[in-house]
Amino acid sequence: MNHFGERLRFREAFLDGRALIVNMMFTVCKGTCPGASAALRGLREALGPVFGERLTIVSITLEPRDDSPAALQRCATIYGAGRRRPELCDWQFVTGRPASVERLRRSLGFYDLDPRIDADVTQHGELLLFGNSTSDRWSALPASLRPALLIETIRRVSGFTFEQRYGIRA
């Protein structure tokens, strides 16, 4: 379920021929989440005009028991994603059943190889997974990288056209 109260399934909702940026987060976090969400807000503003409706940002809660759609809505509003804006790409804050979120977290690669560290979800990193479901090109980088580097890399990996990838009209 997203912060708009809409029920969805990850594969059907997001892997439908669009580019994605995905992260894991907490609505109440004193660690890396605020910085990662601020970076995503900047990426949305920079990449929204380039990709339009073909890019979606998905922030998935690590605390599905506590982070209800209403809590996600409050968090989304802080970062300018509380309502859909046609001039920007879609940004959805997502929760679900704890077992489903855990399965999704692992299938997307948001886990630590050390089981002790992985068991403590507060040890999560500020990783951004991004790619294009049409070309099946995917990569990941820390959200704390310089914005220009993130923008360039996301464009090159996730772009559908030469212009989206390189910023040059073909």
TrEMBL record:
Question: Which family does the record claim for this protein?
Answer: Belongs to the SCO1/2 family.
Name the UniProt record assigns to this protein: SCO family protein
Q: What is the lineage of its organism?
A: Bacteria, Pseudomonadati, Planctomycetota, Planctomycetia, Isosphaerales
